[in-house]
Queue: 2 jobs
Job 1
Amino acid sequence: MALEEKREKRPPVTPMMIEEEAALRNGSRGLTPGPWAEAAGPRPRTTERHIAVHKRLVLGFAVSILALLAVTMIAVLLSVRFEECGAAADGPPRASGNGSLSGAARQPPGAGQPPGQPEEEARGGEAAEEEEEEEEEWQRRQELPPWARPRLPRHLRPLHYNLMLSAFMENFTFSGEVNVQLEVRNASRYIVLHAHRMHIEAVRVAEDKLAGGVRVARTFFYPQTQVFVVVLNRSLEVQRSYNLKIIYNALIENELLGFFRSSYVLHGERRFLAVTQFSPTHARKAFPCFDEPIYKATFKISIRHQATYLSLSNMPVETSVFEEDGWVTDHFSQTPLMSTYYLAWAVCNFTYRETVTKSGVVVRLYARPDAIRRGSGDYALNITRSLIEFYEDYFKVPYSLPKLDLLAVPKHPYAAMENWGLSVFVEQRILLDPSISSILYLLDVTMVIVHELCHQWFGDLVTPVWWEDVWLKEGFAHYFEFVGTDYLYPGWNMEKQRFLTDVLHEVMLLDGLASSHPVSQEVQQATDIDRVFDWIAYKKGAALIRMLANFMGHSVFQMGLQDYLTIHKYGNAARNDLWNTLSKALKRVGKSVNIQEVMDQWTLQMGYPVITILGNETTDNIIVISQERFVYDSDAKPKDPSRGDNSYLWQIPLTIAVGNTSHISSEAIIWVSNKSEHHRIPAFEEAGWLLGNINQTGYFRVNYDIRNWRLLINQLTRNHEVISVSNRAGLIDDAFNLARAGYLPQNIPLEIIRYLSEEKDFLPWHAASRALYPLDKLLDRTENYNIFNEYILRQVASMYLKLGWPMNNLNKSLVQASYQHEELRREVIMLACSFGNKHCHQQAATLISDWISSNRNRIPLNVRDIVYCTGVSLMDEDVWEFIWMKFHSTTAVSEKKILLEALTCSDDRNLLNRLLNLSLNSEVVLDQDAIDVIIHVARNPHGRDLAWKFFREKWKILNARYGEALFMNSKLVSGVTEFLNTEGELRELKNFIKSYEGGAAVSFSRAVETVEANVRWQRLYKEELFHWLRKSLTH
């Protein structure tokens, strides 16, 4: 029964009822009519003396009764006042700590106390004094009180939550009643649990069914740790079960976390929905709870809402109760054991489509009615069914719930959230219109879905014990993005190829900074949690898992994962649990490797090594292998001053092969564990070359002596196919980054890419494009930029002419067999247009002009973003206005995204400033898209200083909007600052950091190191690079 129903069916609460309830709780007896009535009742007639005696007795009894009544009333009043003082820590005075919600839930919570600031309400004097006395007592003990500690005390464990909610969409408020069944592990008179930005109406604690209530002395919020404290008159007994009941209300926030609202427009009418985002620490904003991953419990949810809406949660609806006043209450089935941050619910008026897996799991996709009608969710729905079947087979553990809902929402802080049984996606990452979506967009949608579905096992079913090991779920989900996509599209070779450029190369840029951090890092308190959700956890975690799978062997690795999930399902696990399980899997096949010993060096140390392989000039077949920590800026201050870079050491599974002009040997593995080692390579010929980290399965870079680099460059020029496509991409990325950090001469990477005119595979071109991008941004505002520009155009020209432009493919299937070829063509066109190829510019302008004149978009899907950006950059303001108009009119989310990004390509600084200012208007640009606008303007050399200035001026607004959302602030800080490269910009950055208010300290320290490295490169290597380029262009 929902809270509102229960409240309406209660009799009115009278002062006498309150007094009786308070007296019973205090252990006294109520005033019943029995013996007291007898003392004052009629008596037989008797003598006057007896009458006088009786009168005196009656008078005495009357005085006694009045005295007793007075004492009782005083005790009751004191009791009520005592409870009011406790309640005053969170709300207006109530008649009793056990009082009802009194109809207040239908009012905005601000009627009694703003939910946003409950902690700031003035406390009753007595309660505040008692709280101070208690804190002083803890100080005397030289201990922090349980509510001031960074982690919840361990004396209680929640077993089950019964949560009843009423959502009022007309004023964006909700009321709730939560009943938590608690198991007592250690005696205590304190109940400490998380609650934040809500208004507590009433609190009650009761023992199990065998006994009555436990009196609540007082309650208060402790905002520093976002907890709510219930102080009891006596300690809870060990191994007993108690029920904690809390009645509360709060706002459905207009932000991105907790229980928040969003909207969309359908047929000219704005419609609203409300949805949750609890990870990592925001369930406490929607209901009082033990909001740490280790506190797994079962949940029974009921949601009352207007009948014009529907409600969703993790489990299917068991029953729906309809009321005469147009409201309905949905009662959901009980969940399995799960952590609070995977709980979810939504109230919306979406429609859905449905499919069923072979094992009977019902899969539904909910979205705006017009998107469902167009079939925009069909692709996601179909691959979800296939992927559940794939994961069930791969892990040998069935999907654990009867259903999985995919919910597409207009506004969300992240691409998606893997809530168990109710995964939430921002529309851009799940809705796909085949008639106007590119291969790249399809790939993006696919990989986000693969990622979130993997979490149904790694995260939902088996949850990390604590946030320090968040990579245990995010690293696996990111790795399986590529494995799962290979299952759907076997010819795309995602895990063996695209993983390198999109994960390995990208995260090594970040992890090569002195300000990096280990993939497992200590997390003490809630404010530390946000910083562990970064690309180190996601992408480095994935890269280490891939390295582990390769040196274990994929079949043994798969067997170990099956054991790990089976052992720990519905529970929590730490990294050592994984290492132990994988070590046992290796033992079963006769191998003995201490996985923990190896992997601790990779997960508990920051950064990664660069392996240097030198030929020995005096002894044949002997090579010298050394390792050191790779850093871009050797002058940067180490994050841990007690450890210099020389103290870092890894156990490295180095795969190695030798080759010559016509063939390459099979690979051998060498475990490198010392700073420097000598190894004999039997097949190493004098004229041959050597190649390390075969197919780039290891998480490290490889450097060689100059002679070996020359031999590899010669091999690429003569017959590049002798070296695998993965290693060709790896050589390009390693060379560019080794040169940027000063390990190699600046000309080596530019000489390597000369062979690209003969390269027919996508991956090396993609690696080159990604490696050239940061170098381009270092040079794009220099006076000699045209020299670099011309060199790149020469390398691209012949392949651009060979491949040409794609034909209009509106009538073709989106998923083409020629994925690799189409992606190669796209990469070459992007490089040609970006660096100013005249034909490319003319083609883009022609396609844009045709669209404007005919009002029919015939631009090929796979290059639309390139054409839009190039057209906006080259053509006049009318083109910008045309793209702006199309951005507003289109309803296709994939098209909306690339149109918005194209607007940032303009050379007109006035238009860029206009766009920056519009980006903060949520009615024009969605909150999650505003960051992308600012970052893309910063990447434009004509807008870099504008974005940097805008960022500084609007920092307080930006930090208030995105400060609590994982990734968003760090993404913004990095995106705006990563290509600043002058001494003046460095000074501006440091001065801003001194004066700014708010978080993101880690992001800013990383930004300073990045800009310092940029300035250092300009000072040390820019002229060397231009000198070589001039010589090269004259030959």
Job 2
Amino acid sequence: MASDLRVLLVTYTTLCLFSSICAVFGQQDGVRNDPGAGQIPAAAGWQQTKRDVAPVAGGQGQGPLGGIAAGVGNGAQPQYQQQQKLRINPGQGLGAGQRAFQKPAPGQFDPNQKFDQGNQRPNVGLPGQGPGAGPGGMGGQGQWAPKPVGQQPQGQWQGGQQPQGKPKLGPNRPMRISESPACHDDVANLCGKNALRNNFSILECLQNAGENTRAGKKDGGELSDVCNQFLWSYKYNLTRDVRFDSAAFEVCKPDLKKLPECAAIEKGQGLLLPCLYEVAENITTVQCRQYINRMKAITFSDYRLIKDFYTQCQSDVDKLGCGIVYKKGEETALPHKQGATINCLEKKIEELGETCKKQILRVAELTAEDYHTDRALFFACRDDRERFCEAETAGQGAIYNCLLKHKFKEDMSENCRNKLTTRQKVASVDYKANYRLIRKCKEDMKKTKCAKLRDSQGREFRLSKLLICLEEAKHNDVKLSGDCVAELEETRKSLMEDFMVNPEVITQCKKEMANQCSGLQRGGKTLHCLMKLTQGNPKDPKKLSDNCETALMQLVKTADAGANYRIDKALHKACKPVRDKICKEVEAGDAKVLSCLMEHIYDPEMTKECETELLLLQYFVSRDFKLDPLLYKNCKRDVQDLCFTEDFENSNLPEGVVFACLHRHLHPDDREMTLQPGCQAQVHRLLRQRAVSVHLNPQIEANCRSDIGQYCADKTGKGEELSCLQEHHKELSDDCKSKIGGFTEEEAEDIKMNRKLMAACAPMIKQFCKDFLSKKVDEGAALQCLIDHKNDDEMNEKCQAGIEHFQLIQLQDYRFNFKFKESCRKDVIAFCKTSKDKSSIVNCLSSKVRDDTLKDNPQNISEECRKQLKAELLQRSEDIKLDPELFQGCEDDVKKLCSNLKAGKARILECLRDHRKELGEKCHLKLFNRVKEQAQNVKTDFAFMHSCQRMIKQFCPGTAPDSLFKCLKAHKNEPSFDPNCKAVLTKRSIQKKEDFRLNPRMQKACRRDMPKFCNDILDKSKTKEYQEKSMEGEMLLCLKTKFVVKQLSPDCENYVKDTIQEASLDIRMDPILYRVCKDTARKLCGEQMESPGQGQVEECLKSKLHEGKVHDIKCRMQVIRLLQEGRADIHVDTLLYKACALDIKHFCVGIPQGEGRQMSCILEALEDTTIKLHPDCRRMLAERKETWSYAVKESPPGSLSDLAAMVNASEARGYFLTVLLVIIGVLFFGGLCCGRATKRIRAELKNK
């Protein structure tokens, strides 16, 4: 680079007036030494301080310099060692430089004068000026067009005469600047008397004069155009002297011995100092370092002093308007000086040509160590440096770093802030312009090979590439030094603070910043404004251009903001109070802080500000798995092995594709490999955290943009868009439906992914289901636990609503229920292929189970699936909304009959069952089918299970589902039996008696008897009419008549006997008796009807029948039937058996039960006067005999079968059979005799 960047430097050798100044080494009186800033006379108001003395290698201090370096050191500090003085023999001429300061004859041109770059012809200049120089303004193409000598402006001499009162030069005497006619007045006005004998102090003073004025300094003053031009020519011509390099060789001799590449440079070519700049970090001697820093301040004060820079950047200077500093009214603009042109080009670096950009970046590298060498920044930030960085020592980038830390303080001047931004902007293009970063990470860069990375054109990578390289090395467990890590963090913070330091963001997001994010520069506000545009609006989701989003993505990647929440200042400010409360145990700089904040995003402690900033950053982190250090560290190997992206670190993969691959392998097919445990945990973590917003799921967002706009435009809250898409799953486009389906399946597997439900149910989970959360993935167990406790008294409404919402979502696809999907996948494929949603699949599977049960066939549905099916049916019976088919069929009836009831706890379903006779045909049929399914397995009957759960545990633990009813009925009269359970038990028993189709036990016990004796009723039940209404107990009545005549099979007889026995205690258990006698019973037995379950209603009706008060013929016949059933078996007459149980045991021992045998025995004991029965038994038997006798009189047989049954049941059946046989015999013989006597046969027939 040294050959391309030739710097024309002014050295102190030629500035000194040899015999009088250089002969004595030490500090000039009244002069302040400031390394890098030059000497400033005391008259200018400067105070000498120690803080600007930069340390050098080995910790040596700085001493005063003599000879060519005179005025550079700081001899005023007593603790520094005195260095050897260097003398230059006086009397030596200045060569070209000397001739430049001598007055030429008017109209003549000195052939020894040097031409400025860009000049096409020599012009006669002022004394001390280079050719082509004049007081005029800037000409085209960088040429100077001075006025003729005869037209010099005021303040210059004319006609070869020097102004009166000015110092005169001797014939061979070197000229001091103070004695030059062009600058004598300026020196006197601006620099004071103490500096008059020190050319270097005067040069520094005059260079700073204009800047003091623009900075508002009291000692400020404008430098005349004549003096300004003189100084330019003065510095320019001095660089042509061979002694310029000789001075550098002398001062830096010890270092040059170690730097052969610089020692070999030919003198007088202007290449030595550029070479020393290149290796400045290897220079150890104090004198050389100070000399180089002092030369930089002069070198970069005017871009024209930099050879090749002038030629290669002139077109850019003209094009971008960087050749003008300021205008005084309408006066001609002056050329830039004091680094202003360089600063202008730096600000517009993205618009520069490649050759000029290369020069600008190199200048930035050379001025990186000491802020004094960046002249524009130095002058802009002098006051701010005193205000904020007074204790900082100059050099090694310390002042830069200090000023950057205070960049957004309220009292930081805007001019300084802007210059710092420009500097940062250049450093983002060339990382070598960041001196502290390079210095502190030098060894780490070598170790990680990040220092050798170059782009396709052989140039060093940008700052972003270096940062990414070092951060990836860190994530790969390469140990970086503490200083390097700290500096990386500071650099990344600065990138996220101000969009102005990011050229790509400025270029690509120009439109967005102008229209939507203007005026929000400080503290990362503009960047976060741009980041918010990525969220968009459901109606107009694309508010940010692709190029701008890509630039922001690259910025987040460069800053590695996902690794440390402190990098993003806006995020840090918003979330620090939250972090201190809920994540205080996590180290502040750890990547786990962001993860912790995401895990607690629904916590009450989470603020809206923190939530907003957190989600903005996560939007970008979610699109590149390398931005999440925890995921990257644990899944790097899996990505290489399973996702076929070995070079994923350098590949431009689509957003979210790597994570999508990892997600897919979370549940691989049998032929695929699965993720490592650590990677599995991280994928599950991110699935949970990103479930909070559709924007954190790139695959969903990309495929569902139009669906969000169509269905979820008004859903803007946290997690609302995802919930909305789940609710409209059936209506979504195919691609979106697939992505949302996969997301919902994951939610079903891991409840922690359902962030809204977790937030709503956190206390309930701790109370009921905390054991399930100990697993990394609960596999649907925690959700099932919440559903099981959904209707507990302790369950809060918020959690209950969340559970119901997800249950409704699960109805859309059986795969949305993890346990059901895993248990029934094969059964669904085998038996329910045509079923689409979960509801239809549940109906299909339950029908198959019911049919196999009723037909005593082996179950085709697997045991695991049947278990899950029961849970699904139980959930469905709890809330009619969870049964879409029933809800749609009964919606009008619900509004009409049950509108005052709140959904849940099976209230609506029970209401419909209570009003079943009032339902429409469609609703009745749907409800009947549901009730029939519940009858097959009482564990799917929510109202029953919810009311009787405690009683089942107490009285029937371990009882099979088909025996639960019988077990609970056996204990329902226990004192401790729950009345709610008893009420539900009674209701279900009544409904089973009314319709045999709802009574699986009857169907199973009497499956042969019903077709044999009651086939007409079976046929009737299959008609369309009776598919929609109840059989009203007809089948049970038919079987009871056969029970009386002892025609039933043993199983059916036992069932009917149990039914009659149950009905003897509760009239409601006899559907026909209750239906026809309800009004009579209320009229005659009103008191007993208040508690119908004690058997007193039946006793009352029997006594009223005997008294002749039952006038309703239908009711009378049913009471008589009741008496006949009790006479057939004493055990079915519960009250009578209870009264006579001891007597039967004592007097009828050995007599088997059934067929009325024990009843006959006890009746015989009643007639035997020697047997003393229990008074209650004797009384009730006597009453029964009288009632039976009355019943026989009042109940003529309705058919021959009834007559036969009555005769068979009568005690005198032998007598009736004898009479019947006699009558038949008489008829037979009478007919035989009478028939032959009366019938005549013709003779011809007899003779045949």
